[in-house]
């Protein structure tokens, strides 16, 4: 009997292709002849959105009907990066999309390049929030992210001969296909006697390989209608419009964190604005499910991402007491059972403290509540620790002195049931230093949850050739269970596998070389060692130490030493008000200008400063890194997450015993990590004896030569003054202990050079880095938050609509 002919299978990408054509007409109102690349990008995004909406709607239905316990992640920053490719990978539609584009005479790559990235964050803290959103969805946890819909994200950086220049990031200028406005969910917030309305804009966050799509809810500021109405009646129309514009500036721009940020009234206004909207939204959800307000803490766990949302402690108290009629003691138990706080830095200059006058002006009721919390807190302390007024002063929520201030970190600690640091060392130092007194009062409140990164964006999306090799070698489970990378270990000595590994790495390096050529005009050799430091520019991260090392290398090459070819790549933004960080960029740019055209280098040294480091650029850089520079002063980098992204993609680390470097080294093995530098304990001991850089420098001829060369104007067209502030600082106070670590850094860099010359061994070490990095998945971090802090369980979502 003849078998029936199967129904013809539609060619790959057919459904997406049809949806794209439909959107070109119905959303972009164009025919193919007029469509721009951007139109096509929008159409593809809308076509993908149509598909993911099913998951999104089903997820909301499931969470609502099952009255699930929900984690809310409050963060002033979400550094999301582009959505399209990530959503395609989560839906398993990457190849279909590529086929659909091809059918239209386009490439998926050009579509992806069109997407502006939502850069709603400064660096590590904002990117962590984004990785966490994605992991919460992948683990099927009921969760909501709450933040601010800044109209302008982190500034765009351009690099000129004088270093960094900033311009605005109008990421919404051409619309945003990934968000849905929810005007029905908007809330009033009273700030400085004026009401501002927050309107919800929702973005779906897809889980990988599951039907869950959680919500990121960002608040946009709007003046209330009644507002201009009153003035209009009084005949002052123009003033009314100006007022309206003023309240809408609340969500205009993300602050680039810099030293001058403190005391900015707009910044404090932004904080109460998004925190109050978010808490009011939670009360609305509670009410809609018929749950009494006294059950708030059973419905919601609220995680504070640093102190930016710490005002939530006072605002939740205010809403419970003033709006919902709860008594103080009940309100306080609910608040402390709800809130937990993550600290992300030990740097004193980054600890938020708001002047009392400003606070009083903007948030008088919340200040009153803070005073009451403090009075009750100090009262219990007086009883527990009699006769210790200094202890009480150190613990108080109010910093005394001529300019009294509210200490936001203290408010967060007092109002939380759990406080965590972001790597083991950081969490230990929190307990021993910053919060030592609090740890005496509440020893069980403090814990550690080491950071992680999402393997979807940072491996599957960023490095498709590596992902394909992994799928082939160990199966596809690694993407949801990153520990599975362990299965690679036996392959680290398999010659055939190492050859394929090498091939994957070469592809990534060629791709980055092309980007470098495009963005800087410099040709680099993809077979050279790619030595990379990308992160915010800050003295504690010590980009200037890496720069000194490059000058030393330049001197050694000029003196005829034989060193293997290196391409040293820097990237990162400096806060616009941070002069020293900008000067460091200027130095690197000056070095690049001279070194890259010096024939004596003979192709053995290139220096690159890649402008405008971002999530998008990171996706091109991380896969191509041979050597990951993680060289912060021990005890200063809370965790670091770029270190994880690089190691996961097969880079070897040169690093100090700081942040998560310590845990990376523990896992990859000390043979596969280039360690150098003083430990945090050793530095503390040195500090006690009084540190001075001169003795270190005097015994170091090469370092002196490098500093002299910079001081001579060699990298600044003869200008001997330009780098004086930087060099004088290094030679006098050297607050970040560059001179104390420089010699050992050089020793470790020499070891890197020798290791690089044995290509087979380097490849093996590279494989072992990837194989042993599974712990650093943000899935593992989030599992810990869910189990140990939030007590939130997964709720699988089934396709129902
Ligand atoms: C302060 C003054 C001048 C310039 C910058 C600052 C500043 C430094 C750190 C402001 C805020 C800071 O902390 C927030 C932050 O981004 N912390 C980072 O959080 C990441 C996620 O946990 C960690 O991986 C990083 O180590 C940590 O620096």
TrEMBL record:
Record's catalysed reaction(s): [(1->4)-alpha-D-glucosyl](n) + phosphate = [(1->4)-alpha-D-glucosyl](n-1) + alpha-D-glucose 1-phosphate
Q: Hey, what's the signal peptide range on this chain?
A: none
InterPro entries of this UniProt entry?
A: Glycg_phsphrylas, Glyco_trans_35, Pyridoxal_P_attach_site
What keywords is this UniProt entry annotated with? Carbohydrate metabolism, Glycosyltransferase, Pyridoxal phosphate, Transferase
An annotated Gene Ontology molecular function: 1,4-alpha-oligoglucan phosphorylase activity
- The Enzyme Commission number assigned here is 2.4.1.1
Q: Which Pfam families match?
A: Phosphorylase
Q: Which cofactor does it need?
A: pyridoxal 5'-phosphate
Identify the enzyme class: transferase
Protein purpose: Allosteric enzyme that catalyzes the rate-limiting step in glycogen catabolism, the phosphorolytic cleavage of glycogen to produce glucose-1-phosphate, and plays a central role in maintaining cellular and organismal glucose homeostasis. Phosphorylase is an important allosteric enzyme in carbohydrate metabolism. Enzymes from different sources differ in their regulatory mechanisms and in their natural substrates. However, all known phosphorylases share catalytic and structural properties.
The UniProt family comment states: Belongs to the glycogen phosphorylase family.
Q: What is this protein called?
A: Alpha-1,4 glucan phosphorylase
Q: Which organism was this protein described from? A: Cyanobium gracile UHCC 0139
